[in-house]
């Protein structure tokens, strides 16, 4: 079980002693990070569906995005503050059929839902807090590889993920090319772009400049940096949706309520963003948000490998790239660029007016894609 502190209600961190829900916990031991720093006694929380077959060749890894966790499907309840984030995609008869596949989802290293992260107790008995080391996407995949080893999975049948999960999916293909049969990367890129890093920096600064952030050591304080985390989420959420969707849903419509400060009207889109900012602050940890955002900024398949093309060259498996046509944060050109650098890649497009979040909201299209790819239909993605 994860070894985490029991802070007051100033963070949505999963804590040791909380109801585990559907989680399993695995202690993978010490992990040497890309930086050379050693992160001791690492624990990963994960969930599984189905059974690993005797040949151990039916395992599928599902990689979550920034504020996701191991609870891919299933209802909210004890141990799980929200319903699964990809409903209907795992289960008997589902696209990731648990009667056929052994499906694994891991709460990412640095997260806040059971895996080792900033809220975990360090060796001195205090939460890591601001002392938690900087992570990279490669560090997170290295931890996942250790968990796969412990589960007896030498090679994944398929790895699938979107956004930050897509980054880890691609890193599996580049960093462990012999351990992946098929990689399906949705709404992602081969490296973090300047714009993505810029948006991320604004979110990190919103958190770290909250007066209650206390250099990351807020776990024993009466209040945490919920305001900063909420602002970060507001910034992020605008980038996750398309301009046309926001326009059509909200336009310049004002809320039917008294004017706020200085008589200024309150616009409906502001209320929408306030809702999402507050919602995240009730289910996520600010330190984890900043640590994971910086890990995303580190993403570059080609770093130290001679470029992206050289990094992917050893991968002999199947690479499927699925951008969202209205995504302005991870625009389709980034997947198209990857497809040019890896000519064996198959490129398909998720059609959505939503924007980046289309990889989550267009469940029917994603389900159809998964069924075609897992059935071995090589023409279905062209």
Automatic annotation (TrEMBL):
The UniProt record gives the binding positions of substrate as: 233, 357
Which keywords does this Swiss-Prot/TrEMBL entry list?
Answer: Acyltransferase, Amino-acid biosynthesis, Cytoplasm, Methionine biosynthesis, Transferase
E.C. no: 2.3.1.31
GO molecular function annotation: homoserine O-acetyltransferase activity
Residues at the active site = 163 (nucleophile), 327, 356
Gene3D superfamilies listed in its UniProt record: alpha/beta hydrolase
**Reactions catalysed:** L-homoserine + acetyl-CoA = O-acetyl-L-homoserine + CoA
Which part of the chain is the AB hydrolase-1 domain? 59-362
Tell me the superkingdom of the source: Bacteria
Q: How does it assemble?
A: Homodimer.
Q: Indicate the family of this protein.
A: Belongs to the AB hydrolase superfamily. MetX family.
* NCBIfam families reported for this sequence: homoserO_Ac_trn (TIGR01392), PRK00175.1 (NF001209)
Identification of the protein by name: Homoserine O-acetyltransferase
Q: Which species is this UniProt entry from? A: Janibacter terrae
